[in-house]
Amino acid sequence: MSLRLVHSGKVRELYDAGDGHLLMVASDRISAFDVVLDEPIPDKGRVLTAMTVHWLEDLADLAPSHLVSADPARFPAEAADLPDVAGRALLVRRADMLPLECIVRGYLAGSGWKEYTTSRTLHGTPLPAGLQEADRLPEPMFTPSTKATEGHDVNITFDEAVDLVGKETAEAARDLCVEAYRRAAAAGERTGIIVADTKFELGVIDGRLALCDEVLTPDSSRFWPADKWRPGTNPPSFDKQPVRDWLEGSGWDKQPPPPALPAEVVRATSERYVTAYEQISGRRLADWYGAAR
Ligand code: Q0Z
After folding, report:
1. How many helices (H) and strands (E) does the chain have?
2. What is residue 148's predicted lDDT score, i.e. its pLDDT?
3. For a substitution probing ligand 1, which of 10, 15, 22, 53 has the most ligand atoms within 8 Å of its CB?
4. Contact between 237 and 196 (Cβ < 8 Å)
5. Nearest C-alpha to atom 16 of ligand 1 is from which residue?
6. Is ligand 1 within 6 A of the CB of residue 12?
7. Phi and psi torsions of 238, nearest 5°
8. CB 87 within 8 A of CB 291
9. What are the backbone dihedrals phi and psi of residue 139, each rounded to the nearest 5 degrees, phi first?
10. pLDDT given at position 95
11. From CA 175, how far away is CA 196, in angstroms rounded?
């Protein structure tokens, strides 16, 4: 018997592991400009998984989490049927997920910068005049959205978040996510990585708000190399920039199918992911589960 596939995302899969548990598997697939590329990035799934565990452990005094184990020896036997789960999978408790994307922004980037240029607001909140792209915000801001079933997520106001989950839960979610972001941003700063923004997914386990899903990974966050940050520019992504740069230069029209990535771009990108993990955690990826030996 194989584990039942519950959900398949662009670059990861979720399996029912029985007994109120799920197995969350991060693949080595990468997306750029909203398209999944054909070439896997070696070690990307291990990096995202190890980084999630690093942050869940670092933040354990702040909030409980869904994590049960990253040790393949503790996975259900059927997990052995899945290819290469060691290091890329987490056994987690099934939670009652909040119907919210809990986004926290510390810098003005992406859709936040776009909104600011049109209305001098972020998520409807007025900001000081004269801010530039990639500027640091006066304070980190909680900018929730809802998971749209198709296409991109829809921003909601804090009051709309209250309507969805209740005042007490919305306030607790906001306070938890802003504090988790502050701590991650401060830790990143000490190692030369700016955490510009991040998306948390919270759930309720045993009646308590818990950190679920992936946490503070390059796929759920914007990481910038601190030495390349210049307000007024769009700083390079710590992890995906080699892919983006090559695709931009390839003349691709950003409609599927994407062109094949050269081996050198794949190698450089893999190296960036590994560096991000090692810089942030202070550990070696070679010491994580599933290392080639
Ligand atoms: C996470 C996702 C995918 C991985 C649902 N502990 C939990 N309890 C209930 N639901 C979830 C979790 Cl993590 C849950 N997702 C997103 C999709 C692979 C994670 F394909 N969806």
Report:
1. 6, 17
2. 75
3. 22
4. no
5. 213
6. yes
7. -55, -40
8. yes
9. -145, 150
10. 98
11. 18
- Would the CB of 208 count as within 6 Å of ligand 1? no
- CA-CA distance, 104 to 263, in Å (whole number)? 35
Pair 45, 217: CB distance under 8 Å: no
User: What is the tens place of the pLDDT at every residue in 92-144?
Assistant: 999 999 999 999 999 999 999 999 999 999 999 999 999 999 999 999 999 99
Q: At residue 186, what is the residue type?
A: A
Strand partners, 212: 201
Asked if residues 64 and 208 have their Cβ atoms less than 8 Å apart, the reply is yes
| Peptide bond just before 257 cis, omega within 30 deg | yes
Q: Is the distance from the beta carbon of residue 86 to the nearest atom of ligand 1 less than 6 Å? A: no
What is the spatial distance between Cα 174 and Cα 13, in angstroms, rounded to a whole number? 27
User: Comparing C-alpha atoms, which of 17, 20, 91, 15 is closest to residue 53?
Assistant: 91
pLDDT number for residue 152? 77
Query: DSSP assignment of 217-259, as one string?
Result: -TTTEEEEEGGG--TTS-PPPTTTHHHHHHHHHHT--SSSSPP
Give the residue-averaged pLDDT of 49-60: 98
Flag whether pLDDT at 254 surpasses 90.
Answer: yes
Closest to 259 (Cα-Cα) out of 11, 33, 107, 2: 33
Q: In one letter, which amino acid is 78? A: E
